[in-house]
Design brief:
With 160 residues, the chain is α+β, with helices and mostly antiparallel strands. 42% of the residues lie in helices and 28% in strands. The protein has six helices and six strands; from the N terminus they run αααβββαββααβ.
Length: 160
């Protein structure tokens, strides 16, 4: 990993960096994704982290909402972490998936329909450790989240 990417990851985990990125990153990533046909994200380019675009159905509105998320590949599954930058509340996309577990995942300009399920126990712990290995900032977010246990969500591609 380059020194620049390491510095960016460290800044993103810190409180000021998280605050700023939580407010602007999804907007900038959305613009870049549209400009590149979903092949690039700011997070991927600057921090070198794997990013997917997750489109959920709003829990209250029923409207589609798309967010960029750092993700782990796990066979035919995609794993996302509901860290919400270490806030004490769950991210909206997680709340949406609890109401409507079917979502669209886009990676590198290719999309598919996935079904979401939160994992617990040993599977959660194993995936959580992999996530921290990918991006140590998740550990900082877990500390900052206080009593909120950060959910680990597995998205399994639907056949067809």
């Amino acid at each position: 990993m380059s020194a620049l990417r390491g510095a960016i990851r460290k800044a993103a985990a810190g409180k000021p960096g998280s605050w700023l990125l939580a407010r602007v990153l999804h907007r900038v990533d959305g613009l870049l994704a549209r400009a590149t046909g979903g092949r690039c994200s700011v997070t991927g380019l600057l921090a070198g982290l794997p990013v997917v675009f997750l489109t959920t159905r709003g829990a209250r509105s029923g409207r589609p909402h798309t967010v960029p998320l750092v993700a782990l590949a796990s066979g035919d599954e995609v794993v996302v972490i509901a860290s919400n930058w270490g806030r004490r509340s769950h991210p909206s996309w997680y709340v949406n998936l609890r109401s409507f577990p079917e979502a669209v995942v886009s990676v590198g300009g290719r999309s598919g329909v996935y079904t979401a399920a939160e994992v617990h126990g040993a599977r959660r712990e194993a995936l959580w450790q992999r996530a921290i290995g990918l991006y140590p900032g998740f550990r900082t977010y877990a500390h900052r989240a206080g009593d909120r246990r950060i959910p680990v969500v597995v998205l399994k591609r639907k056949p067809g």
